[in-house]
Amino acid sequence: MKEDIYIALLYKRLSQQITAAEEKQLTEWLAGSEENQHLAASVKKAWELGGNYSTDVAVDMDADFSLLQNRINQLEET
Q1: What is the Cα–Cα distance from 69 to 74, expressed in whole angstroms?
Q2: String of DSSP letters for 22-65
Q3: Distance CA 45, CA 58 (A)
Q4: Other Cβ atoms within 10 Å of 18 Cβ, number
Q5: Which residue from 53, 55, 4, 6 is spatially nearest to 29, judged by alpha carbons?
Q6: pLDDT tens sequence across 37-52
Q7: Are 46 and 13 in contact (CB under 8 A)?
Q8: Cβ neighbours of residue 9 under 8 Å, at least 6 residues apart?
Q9: pLDDT tens digits along 10-38
Q10: How many CB atoms lie within 10 A of CB 6?
């Protein structure tokens, strides 16, 4: 899908990693249609919403394994 290229460029712009040539290509694409501009706005919104996302996850493998074992035991009893 050709739009994937422009979505990648939008992410590069938002992360401030876009080159001058890529910026020019993206600007031309955005000027091409309102649909492109709407897509860009959606990508920007997703970027902004994702900014609050945290990948820090605490996992207690022993507790989770114990829960799984309990579930298995309950299923075997029924």
Answers
A1: 9
A2: HHHHHHHHHHH-HHHHHHHHHHHHHHHHHTT--------HHHHH
A3: 28
A4: 18
A5: 6
A6: 999 999 999 988 887 6
A7: no
A8: 18, 22, 25, 26, 29
A9: 999 999 999 999 999 999 999 999 999 99
A10: 20
3-class SS of residue 15? coil
Q: Label residue 10 exposed, middle or buried (CB < 10 Å: 0-12, 13-18, 19+).
A: buried
pLDDT score of 53 = 62
**Count of positions (residues) in the chain:** 78
CA-to-CA distance for 27 and 9, rounded, in angstroms?
10
Helix (H, G, I), strand (E, B) or coil at 42: helix
As a whole number, the mean pLDDT across the chain is 89
